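Researcher: We're teaching a course module on how sequence relates to structure. For the next exercise, students receive a sequence and then see the predicted structure as tokens, so they can try to spot secondary structure elements on their own. Here is the exercise chain.
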Amino acid sequence: MKKKNRTQQPWWFLDYGYQTKAALVKEIRKIVRSYSNGTVLRKDDDWLMRQIFKRHREYAVKEGAGIKSIEVRTNEAQSDTRGFWINRIDGTSVDISWPKCLNPEGEYTLETEVHAAARCDVEHLIEKYWEKPRTRVCILCGKPCLYWRTKTHVASINPSFKELMNSFLKEMGLTYDDIIVESSDFRSSISDRRIREEWKAFYAENAVLDLVHATCNRKRKRK
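Model: And here is the predicted structure for the students to work with:
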């Protein structure tokens, strides 16, 4: 088999020695899990994440006056996820998304950006379902769900979120290019108020929410 030359090797291998992108993702997730909320990263982990953050398309803005430390916190917009925050030397802090750094040009695709904003805009409906779920078992495997948000998700499986979004755009006569998103790394929203409110109403009427194990949900998305 013909070997790749150095210029064809991906940056996560050339710069950090990870054979695959999945291996680097696994390492970053391990770092997140190893810290409690509000804990500053140790020297080695801090170094790795600083290098990765430099690939973020808005790194200069995120860095600001300079990075004093990096810590793990719960995502303010989605309380079932945790990520990184940059503590600047001027006393300010800002969230930063490590998945964005692993994508081409340090950004998500347009479709992913719109989906993230649309999810945030209906977060209140998901929170409402948490208060009184129809059932306490996973809709995919049928086994009981632990009532912990790190272990259990609320999701519309049939129709899926993507199917709902595509149906909404078709009904409105829109495409993904027509949706403008205003966002930080962990909180975003559809900018146009009319479209945003129409989407909320559409989701409330058409989504079929159920509890699903986080592992089952991730496996479903990979298929």
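Model: If you want an answer key for the exercise: The CA atoms of residues 112 and 210 lie 22 Å apart. The longest helix spans residues 193-206.
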